[in-house]
UniProtKB/TrEMBL annotation:
Record SMART domains: Cache_2, HAMP, MA
Main location (coarse class): membrane
Record organism: Ahrensia marina
An example molecular function term from Gene Ontology annotations: transmembrane signaling receptor activity
Location relative to the cell: Cell membrane
Record-annotated membrane-spanning stretches: 191-209
Protein name: Chemotaxis protein
Ranges of residues in domain Methyl-accepting transducer: 347-576
Keywords from the named record: Cell membrane, Chemotaxis, Membrane, Transducer, Transmembrane, Transmembrane helix
GO annotation terms (biological process): chemotaxis; signal transduction
Length: 602
């Protein structure tokens, strides 16, 4: 499931729910159809039992001697043959040889139906006799209606029961084409409703899923652009209060971190440029100083060239700037040159060796200082990036801790909702039990009304022609009582089924509540761990920030030392060269005899 797109998962969920709804609708329609059929069959059973009670009444009269048995039979057959009920209901009867002895159509009386079959070849008469002998039952066959052509048949259901004292089978039937039409209409209505619900569900799912996936796609595009260092992109949907808004706001925080990192990188580049500029200025100053020194050397060289010819009265011209003192000192030195020449010649060799050692040491120190400065600069950059990463991780850990705390609160609220749902379902279950008691009372009232109507029909039959109207009223009352009993029975079955489903729902909601409690405990543990991580990351960020500042200060000082070492090396080299030239020049001087004696003596 983790590799399936969210839109596909949501479509599958909606389709599954609609399919479940269709299955439930189908089962409910099937149960309703069976209930309608059973109601019709119960009507046939009740009517047949009522007719048998009339036969029993006339049989009791014959047995009591109030009228001859043949006359009692004739009256009973006549009474039952004249009874009609809706829809299209009448009575018929067979003797033990399957000969019709009573029927609403007098032309059918006297015919033998043994082995008779309907238009489709079903032996309905023998089936009626068999089921009547077994205590009564329903027979379904096809038969034409009264007044309709013989070749036009309709489905018909008949209930047959045996009246043992006269050894006859009495039955009644109703045509079920209207019932089948009603069932078919109900099924078509359910199918149409299912299709409409399916279409509406898919359309609603499409817009719902589109409302989820489109913001996610836009946030993903913005995040991808930010990853590619494009901080000009606007992060959409940060105003939403759902999970998409949370993701968008986290992306906005990520964008701000990237901008901050870019600014730090830019500042580092500017700092490097400043250091390079300062290093270049130092180099230029060194070159300028070397040029001035070359000018001094050139001037002094010219004076020394005159000295090479033995003219100790030569003097240096103006050198300018800080070298003016050198000119004065040179002129003064020329006066004392003869005295100092011997000592300078003696110390010149030692001075040359010393300058060479200083130049070598200064060069090595400059090289090591530059290498150390480069390494320290790389360390400072890496430490700065590490500090930024730890700061970002600390902020993200704090945000995660806040989100986990919110999820923990929502889980606790979900537990309260589940407890309320369990309480509500328990109340529904108690209400269903009370309704079942009321329906039981209605069922008993319908049964008693049926018995009273039956007794009224018997009394009306005893009254003869004068009681026919009362018999019709009693029959209508019995039909209403039977319908009430059937409806109460159906409602009771539906309530029992609902009670079972409510019990299952209570169990499922209880399991969901236990699962939510476990999830809440795990979220609390995760919240504590994330809080510890957030505190630790904050402390690390503070420590690394302090270390980074210290390293930056050391790096700056090392860069200055490297520049000074380069200056020292250049200066030492120039002095070594001047000393060498000076020694060559000194060796060319010729002293007077007095100065030579002094030099040799020294």
């Amino acid at each position: 499931m983790s590799n399936i797109r969210i839109s596909t998962q949501l479509f599958c969920l909606v389709f599954g729910l609609i399919a479940a709804f269709s299955i439930v609708q189908f089962v409910q329609n099937r149960a309703t159809s069976e209930s309608l059929r059973q109601e019709r069959y119960d009507l046939l059973t009740s009517q047949t039992q009522s007719a048998i009670s009339i036969l029993q009444y006339y049989y009791d009269l014959a047995q009591a001697g109030e009228m001859p048995e043949e006359e009692a039979r004739a009256e009973a057959y006549k009474t039952i043959s004249n009874i009609r009920f809706e829809p299209d209901g009448y009575f018929f009867g067979f003797d033990k040889d399957t000969t019709m002895i009573l029927h609403a159509n007098p032309s059918t009386v006297g015919k033998n139906f043994k082995g008779a079959a309907d238009k489709r070849g079903y032996p309905f008469a023998d089936e009626m006799m068999t089921k009547a002998a077994d205590g009564g039952g329903i027979t379904v066959y096809h038969w034409p209606k009264l007044g309709s052509p013989e070749d036009v048949v309709f489905p018909k259901a008949s209930y047959n029961a045996k009246f043992a004292p006269w050894d006859i089978v009495l039955g009644t039937g109703v045509y079920t084409d209207d019932l089948n039409a009603q069932i078919w209409a109900n099924q078509m209505q359910s199918i149409t409703a299912g299709i409409i619900v399916l279409i509406l569900g898919l359309v609603a799912a499409y817009f719902l899923i589109r409302g989820i996936t489109n913001p996610l796609a836009k946030v993903h595009s913005a995040m991808q652009a930010i990853v590619e260092e494009n901080t000009d992109v606007e992060v959409p949907h940060t105003e939403m209060q759902n999970e998409v808004g949370m993701m968008a706001r986290a992306t906005q925080v990520f964008k701000e971190k990237v901008i901050e990192r870019q600014q730090l990188t830019k500042a580092k580049v500017e700092q490097d440029a400043l250091l390079n500029s300062e290093r270049e200025n130092n180099t230029n100053a060194t070159k300028a100083e070397a040029a001035r020194q070359a000018n001094v050397v050139k001037t002094i060289g010219a004076a020394l060239a005159q000295l090479a010819d033995g003219d100790l009265s030569t003097r240096c011209s103006a050198l300018g700037g800080e070298y003016e003192t050198l000119r004065q000192n040179f002129n003064n030195a020329m006066e004392k040159l003869e005295v100092a020449m011997s000592n300078i010649h003696q110390k010149g060799s030692d001075l040359d060796a010393t300058f060479s050692a200083i130049s070598h040491s200064s060069s090595e120190m400059s090289t090591r200082t530059e290498s150390q400065a480069a390494n320290l600069e790389e360390t400072s950059a890496a430490l700065t990036e590490l500090t930024e990463s730890v700061s970002s991780a600390a902020a993200d850990a704090k945000n995660v801790a806040n989100r986990v705390d919110e999820v923990s609160t929502d889980a606790a609220r979900s537990n309260e909702v589940v407890d309320k749902a369990i309480s509500a379902m328990s109340s529904i279950e108690q209400s269903s039990a009370e309704i079942s008691k009321v329906i039981s009372v209605i069922d008993e009232i319908a049964f008693q009304t049926n018995l009273l109507a039956l007794n009224a029909g018997v009394e009306a039959a005893r009254a003869g022609e004068a009681g026919l109207g009362f018999a019709v009223v009693a029959q209508e009352v019995r039909e209403l009582a039977q319908r009430s009993a059937a409806a109460a029975k159906e409602i009771k079955g539906q309530i029992q089924q609902s009670t079972s489903q409510v019990n299952q729902g209570v169990g499922l909601v209880g399991q969901a509540g236990e699962a939510l409690k476990r999830i809440a405990e795990q979220i609390n543990e995760a919240n504590q761990l994330v809080a510890k991580i957030s505190v630790s990351a904050t402390e690390q960020s503070t420590t690394l920030h302090a270390i980074s500042e210290s390293v930056n200060e050391i790096d700056y000082g090392t860069q200055r030392n490297a520049a000074m070492a380069e200056e020292l090396t250049a200066t030492a080299g120039g002095l070594a060269q001047d000393t060498s030239e000076l020694m060559s020049m000194i060796q060319q001087f010729k002293l007077t005899e007095k100065r030579e004696e002094l030099r040799m003596a020294s």
